Amino acid sequence: MSPRRNRPRRPEPSESNAAEGARKGVEGVQQYQDGEWMVRSIFGGAAVKAYRCPGCTQEIRPGVAHVVAWPVDDRGDENDRRHWHTGCWRARDRRGPTVERSRNAPRYG
Question: Which residues touch 91 (CB under 8 Å, ≥6 apart)?
Fold first, then answer.
């Protein structure tokens, strides 16, 4: 009979990389009419801050799965990353630009 092992096991390197990947999300390059974008899907458990979606100007609350996108080429850097609702990101080619209005501004005209 073997003695009991009292010290915790070290995680395998692949396990820690998998945990890091789950925290960061799934990443890939997507091509749209306005160029190539690096897109990362953020899972609900990894979303810990509130962001403003540029597609609908609504808040993305903590715990809600969403997408982070930034340009691939030299025109973008880390400051150009934007957090989008997944549906807003998919529909952005079909939508017109959103205009922010104050509460008392006329809607049409």
Answer: 55
Beta carbons within 10 angstroms of residue 69's beta carbon = 20
Entry field: residues in the chain: 109
- Give the confidence band of 93 by pLDDT, cuts at 50, 70, 90: confident
Instruction: State both tokens at 18.
Output: 């998998």
Strand partners, 83: 68
Tokens 């017109």 belong to residue: 96
Torsion angle, CA of 42/59/79/81, rounded to 10 degrees?
Answer: 40
- List the single range of 24-28, 57-61, 65-69, 71-75 with lowest mean pLDDT: 24-28
Q: Could you count the other beta carbons within 10 Å of the beta carbon of residue 83? A: 20
Letter for the amino acid at 43?
A: F
Q: Which residue has the tokens 């890939």?
A: 28
- 8: phi then psi, degrees, rounded to nearest 5: -70, 150
Q: Are 69 and 37 in contact (CB under 8 A)?
A: yes
> Looking at residues 33-45, what average pLDDT do you find?
86
